Amino acid sequence: MLSAVARRALTGAIQVVRGCGFLSSPAMVPRSGHQTLAAAPLPAVQGSPGVRQAQVLDHKRMLQVEWDDGSCSLYPFAWLRDNCQCPLCTLQSAQARSLLLTDLDVHTGMDQVQLSDNSKVCITWPDHHRSEFEPEWLRKRCFSPEARQARQEKLFLNEREFWDSGLQIPMADYEEVLHDDKAALAWLMALRRVGIVYLKGASLEQGQVARLSQRIGFLRLTFYGHTWQVQDKPSANNVAYTSGRLSLHTDYPALHHPPGVQFLHCLQQSQQGGESEVVDGFHMAELLRREAPEAFGILSSLWVDFTDTGSDYCDFFVQSKNRIIDVDGEGRVTRINYNNATRDSTLDVPLDQVQPFYSSLKTFVEVMNRPENVFAYRMEPGDLVTFDNWRLLHGRKSYVSNSECLRHLEGAYLDWDEVMSRLRILRKQVYGDS
Ligand SMILES: [Zn+2]
What we know:
Double-stranded beta-helix, alpha+beta, carnitine biosynthesis
């Protein structure tokens, strides 16, 4: 039941981006191919049924809770004792466990279970310690596969909406996102789900990416500084700091933990060229898995060396080993790590794997460069694009450099842990929902 509720809430959220976005500010003008973000949709209300009865299943060493709606949940004794919420076992001010594992009997029995008047589950343990659990707290932590899946989706929002060149890019107003919690929540939800959100109306001064990162928490310092200026620079220490074309890439795979989120603010655009391009890397990886499973297998298992040396915030000599397609234990794509400029000439693979690696990479790049997969846009001064650097590959067309009016973008990085933290807090503030 929980998973059905979660699925409905999710489908509703997707529809806002795809079909029925509405203007959240009178100043916003919808443009073809863009979709203004509506306020975040209300999550479906989850009924929180009370407890009908609780029963000790000694032979399984589990507590069975039967809910008012007739469904049942099972909780192992060891887990219940470990998560006792009393002031002795939990430091209330930090909501953190103070019970030590050395003091936990993982083979504990259970002496007694009772229901209090307000439906709390009250347990007495063999050492006379007492624990009380709120029904809602227990229900959220039910161990059924459906409930676990719903809880994980709620916490991590890992369901993504794939797109191609037909993307209706979610849009929002920069100042509104800064000052309105609902707008900020809608922004971050779309950033997670779609991977890119376009903000309009930022002022034409440096410092706007830093201001936006403070809305979340803090930005990610790298060797390129707290924020960085994308401009045509003499003796550039990065290919981005030229006027040349940048092929589709993710930023900073030379780090073992590349930045999760990227902000780019356009202060000045070139008169000719400099258009931006993005592709949905997770979508491309799934296409590759379907069309060329062998290539997918190689790119998701082979560790590739990346390197970055130079001097900026300070001097640096960075080396990493990353898989171009990162997958988790269940084979789900979790991150794309690909930047042809910083892919090292050192290739730490056996000789007979070199050619298959090149063929696989070439196939992947061919898939991502298909016109039907690439979404192109042109940033104008005051535009600020925010995107998932673990998922999207981005590039830009070459441009004609003009010293009179120098193309200038300011960028900053953040990490997903901080972004998701703000998203959860906003969701709680806006919907009282945790
Ligand atoms: Zn306790």
